[in-house]
Amino acid sequence: MVEKIKLALVGIGKIARDQHLPALAANNDFDLIATASRNNTIDGIAAYKNVGELLNALPDLKAISLSTPPEGRFEQAMTAIRAGKDVMLEKPPAATVSEAEMLIAAARARNVVLFATWHSREAAEIDAARAWLKDKVIKAVRIRWMEDIRQWHPGQDWILAPGGFGVFDPGINALSIATTILPEPLTVLSADMGVPSNRACPLTADIRMRSGDADVDVKFNFLQTGTQTWDIEVDTDAGMLRLGMGGSILEIPGEAQKSAADEEYARLYKRFAELVRTRQIDVDLRPLHLVADSFMIANRTTLEPFEF
Ligand code: NAP
């Protein structure tokens, strides 16, 4: 029998509880032996305050999964990599492009595994969408990621602080899908952002991109009440493809609508185990580049103050 990989989970918050813990409980590759979080703990699991404490206490630890916010994750990841641990990163992989690049270089230099996850790429219908679009002429793309920050991120002040990405925190999920299903690379042409007067990051963003000859019209909104929308529509020479509900529903011309159960985090941990066993680095920074480019060239409008 193959020995399980001893893993610690760092940053016990919403996504750790909603997704990482259930995925790890159902997974045979990893043995969750500890957590590290400043305030939060999980019943029955050894708890430490930070990565340094973990490393001192658990010399047998093989891998570390980071589900902290992006700002500050660089130091945690770097500490783990320098100690020779294999590392899995929540999205976005870092708060800046250069931090992410430094993590890749450090992982290479120490021959440790680095996996920058994009959970939305593991949604049920992404692979089918990519396969269908592969040989089509793409004419236009519409991306609509509109959700209510108060419903999905209650009290998460970090998300609107510097390095929190604002509406690009969910929006980067759409970009992670677009960069993997569209046959041509994306570039940012212009961006308009709405930033509340008392916060650092945008609540709204309208971005114009291009992929090959196709216009890509992107709208992110964090103030969406009522119907929540995580949709991508692609007009092609063979009709329109529509990915709904974050990539879990697929509509293509002439076929019945398809959907399947959510296995995003189960697939991420399966992939991480594969990378650990085969000693590979899997980091695709294209979605992060598009966010950085949007921030670089954006027109900013000041919105009224925002409180949760
Ligand atoms: P969260 O609920 O705020 O949890 C993050 C946890 O990290 C906190 O509970 C906190 O626990 C710890 N932490 C360490 N340093 C922190 C800091 N400077 N500020 C705030 N918390 C800090 O956030 P989350 O929603 O789980 O998101 C974490 C990461 O997962 C983000 O990168 C996000 O994009 C990604 N993600 C979130 C979702 C979602 O639906 N929420 C979905 C997919 C991915 P301690 O106080 O105990 O240290």
Structure notes:
Helix 3 (73-82) runs parallel beside helix 4 (97-110). The radius of gyration is 20 Å and the shape is globular. It has 2 domains: 5-116, Rossmann fold (3-Layer(aba) Sandwich); 120-260 and 292-303, Dihydrodipicolinate Reductase, domain 2 (2-Layer Sandwich), CATH 3.30.360.10. Helix content is 31%, strand content 29%. By secondary structure, it is an alpha/beta fold. The model has no long low-confidence stretch (mean pLDDT 98). The structure holds NADP nicotinamide-adenine-dinucleotide phosphate. NADP nicotinamide-adenine-dinucleotide phosphate (NAP) binds next to helix 1.
Widest β-sheet, arrangement of strands? 14-13-12-11-7-10-9-8-16
Q: Which structural class fits the helix and strand makeup?
A: alpha/beta
Number of domains: 2
- Small molecules in complex: NADP nicotinamide-adenine-dinucleotide phosphate
Distance between the termini: 50 Å
Mean pLDDT: 98
Low-pLDDT regions = none
Strand content: 25-35%
CATH homology superfamily of the largest domain: Dihydrodipicolinate Reductase, domain 2
Radius of gyration: 20 Å
> In sequence order, what are the helices and strands, one letter per element?
EHEEHEHEHEHEHHEEEEEEEHEHE
CATH class category label of the largest domain? Alpha Beta
The number of distinct β-strands equals 16
Largest sheet properties = 9 strands, mixed
